[in-house]
Automatic annotation (TrEMBL):
<feature type="transmembrane region" description="Helical">
    <location>
        <begin position="199"/>
        <end position="218"/>
    </location>
</feature>
<feature type="transmembrane region" description="Helical">
    <location>
        <begin position="268"/>
        <end position="292"/>
    </location>
</feature>
<comment type="similarity">
    <text>Belongs to the major facilitator superfamily. TCR/Tet family.</text>
</comment>
<keyword id="KW-1003">Cell membrane</keyword>
<dbReference type="InterPro" id="IPR011701">
    <property type="entry name" value="MFS"/>
</dbReference>
<feature type="transmembrane region" description="Helical">
    <location>
        <begin position="99"/>
        <end position="120"/>
    </location>
</feature>
<keyword id="KW-0813">Transport</keyword>
<feature type="transmembrane region" description="Helical">
    <location>
        <begin position="7"/>
        <end position="31"/>
    </location>
</feature>
<feature type="transmembrane region" description="Helical">
    <location>
        <begin position="43"/>
        <end position="62"/>
    </location>
</feature>
<feature type="transmembrane region" description="Helical">
    <location>
        <begin position="230"/>
        <end position="248"/>
    </location>
</feature>
<dbReference type="InterPro" id="IPR020846">
    <property type="entry name" value="MFS_dom"/>
</dbReference>
<protein>
    <submittedName>
        <fullName>Major facilitator transporter</fullName>
    </submittedName>
</protein>
<dbReference type="GO" id="GO:0005886">
    <property type="term" value="C:plasma membrane"/>
</dbReference>
<feature type="transmembrane region" description="Helical">
    <location>
        <begin position="304"/>
        <end position="322"/>
    </location>
</feature>
<dbReference type="Pfam" id="PF07690">
    <property type="entry name" value="MFS_1"/>
</dbReference>
<dbReference type="InterPro" id="IPR036259">
    <property type="entry name" value="MFS_trans_sf"/>
</dbReference>
<feature type="transmembrane region" description="Helical">
    <location>
        <begin position="334"/>
        <end position="353"/>
    </location>
</feature>
Length: 520
């Protein structure tokens, strides 16, 4: 295909990608407001995790379905599912109901992400993919700018046309999805050579049985107890499900949902592993950073979105620069290693953030993270696709996206689990220390402060951290132990992310071969 034909196809893909990317950014920036309104701050990770879990399980199915039936009809089906999930989310009445409807969204979103990358691989050479994947990154950059602003505007409106302002975050997706369907029908016309496989339904069920229990433990382990009978039982079920999945995939052969023969290809194997490992700090940091800016820095959702612009700028610049250099030289390892190294440095900066850290210091960490992701994500995908036969491109691209989504789900669940496991005890310690001062006890007993803390301080001495809205109303001195506890816990979480990113850096530097991409 000519450059003009490729860009025409990309215009349709970019609109579908924008739909999913914008939603993730909007929800991330407004999640604290949504969680406070639905009284589920500690359960807010479910809203993100449910989306990622559903998308993770659906992603390999999309790859196989698109190999069998063609990219366009499957891509359209993904858009429709995403719109239905968005409509349901707009009328959710509890945090857990919202999480369930987000899962419906995730089933559609998993196809929007993976199929776009598959279609790019269909119509470009390995060397040119980095150049055109830059267009996709531009979509993410645009959604990163627009998402927090749109999310902030809606989240700060108490009502709009008779509904809570935040509900329009989801309802706005419905007309956008309708527009995407019209554009896809007009421009996404690429030849399809059907692959005659039966659908691996057994593999899909086994995969769900293997993945969901393990992710439930990652999310709920802190509340249940990591060694509790419930957690151990779910771990056993999950491991058994994964074992059955491997056996089913081996029996299905070429028709497997995730063909095991792909793992004989070293480049694919490394790409899948790096997608998983890098996905942990990437998704975890993107979920936690807005919470830091709003809780610790006291920003509104809109201001938190604007403060995150350094990530966007660095991401766009790095993606465009790396894409052009890969297209010119065919080399990608140097960019991969540098990108993951930059991500590691950014997470290390975040691990040193305090409640009073200046914004310029936070921005340094954002620049490192944005540049790192811009350089690393496209090169990891290129690595995974580089030696895969064309007939397996759909399944292969869906598979590496599956591993990235798994990493993101684990990262989000793990980050929030560590955060609230540490925040409660550390806030309790800070309160006990502060109460040794008579002036603090006097402030705490004032009617306005006592009323705000009434639902937070339990009679048994514990803390109810479901709603953080009280921090906006209590005296700053009374709020300080809470802020210190949250920020201290966030430091530990970001440090964990830095360690995981460092592991990815070692894998990339040590194991990835320094090869030259083909221009055909």
């Amino acid at each position: 295909m000519t450059h003009r034909q490729i860009v025409t196809v990309l215009s349709g893909l970019m609109l579908g990608m924008f739909l999913a990317a914008l939603d993730q950014m909007v929800v991330s920036s407004a999640l604290r407001t949504i969680a406070d309104d639905l009284h589920g701050l500690t359960a807010q990770a479910w809203v993100t995790t449910a989306y990622l879990v559903a998308g993770t399980i659906a992603t390999p199915l999309y790859g196989k379905l698109s190999d069998i039936h063609g990219r366009r009809p499957v891509y359209l089906w993904a858009i429709v599912l995403f719109a239905v999930g968005s409509l349901l989310c707009g009328f959710a009445t509890s945090i857990h109901q919202l999480a369930a409807f987000r899962a419906v969204q995730g089933i559609g979103g998993g196809g929007l992400m993976s199929l776009a990358m598959t279609i790019i691989a269909d119509i470009t050479s390995p060397r040119e993919r980095g150049r055109y994947q830059g267009y996709i990154t531009a979509v993410f950059a645009g959604s990163s700018v627009a998402g927090p602003l749109v999310g902030g505007v809606f989240a700060e409106r108490s009502t709009l046309l008779g509904l809570d302002g935040w509900r329009w975050i989801f309802l706005i997706n419905v007309p956008l999805a309708a527009l995407a369907v019209v554009v896809i029908l007009r421009v996404l016309r690429i030849p399809h050579k059907p692959v005659r496989h039966r659908l691996d339904r057994g593999g899909a069920v086994a995969l769900a049985v293997g993945i969901v229990p393990l992710l439930l433990v990652a999310e709920q382990g802190r509340g249940w107890g990591w060694g509790s009978p419930r957690a151990l039982t779910l771990c056993a079920v999950g491991l058994a499900g994964l074992l059955v999945f491997v056996l089913v995939e081996r029996r299905m052969g070429d028709a497997a949902l995730l063909p095991l023969r792909l793992f004989r290809i070293k480049a694919f194997r490394l790409g899948a592993a790096l997608h998983f490992v890098v996905g942990i700090p990437m998704f975890g940091a993107m979920a936690l950073l807005p919470l830091y800016l709003q809780l610790a820095q006291g920003m509104t959702p809109v201001n938190a979105g604007l403060a995150s612009l350094p990530i966007v700028v660095a991401n766009v610049v790095a993606t465009i620069a790396v894409g052009r250099m890969m297209s010119r030289t065919g080399k990608f390892k140097v960019h991969l290693v540098a990108g993951i190294g930059s991500l590691t440095a950014g997470m290390a900066v975040f691990a040193t953030l305090r409640e009073d850290s200046p914004l310029w210091y936070v921005s340094i960490g954002m620049l490192f993270v944005g540049a790192g992701l811009g350089a690393a994500m496209q090169t990891i995908t290129t690595l995974a696709q580089s030696d895969v036969p064309p007939g397996d491109m759909g399944a292969a691209t869906a598979s590496v996206n599956f591993f990235r989504s798994n990493g993101g789900t684990v990262g989000t669940a793990m980050f929030f689990s560590i955060l609230f496991s540490l925040a409660g005890p550390r806030i309790g310690e800070g309160l006990a220390e502060a109460r040794e001062e008579p002036s603090f006890r006097q402030l705490e007993a004032e009617p306005a402060n006592a009323g705000a803390l009434e639902g937070v301080l339990r009679p048994d001495g514990g803390l109810n951290l479901e709603d953080s809205a009280f921090l906006r109303t209590v005296d700053t001195q009374v709020a300080q132990p809470f802020l210190d506890g949250y920020v201290s816990a966030m430091q530990a979480v970001f440090l964990t992310g830095a360690v995981v990113a460092l592991l990815a850096f070692v894998i990339a530097a040590w194991r990835v071969p320094d090869t030259t991409l083909s221009s055909e």
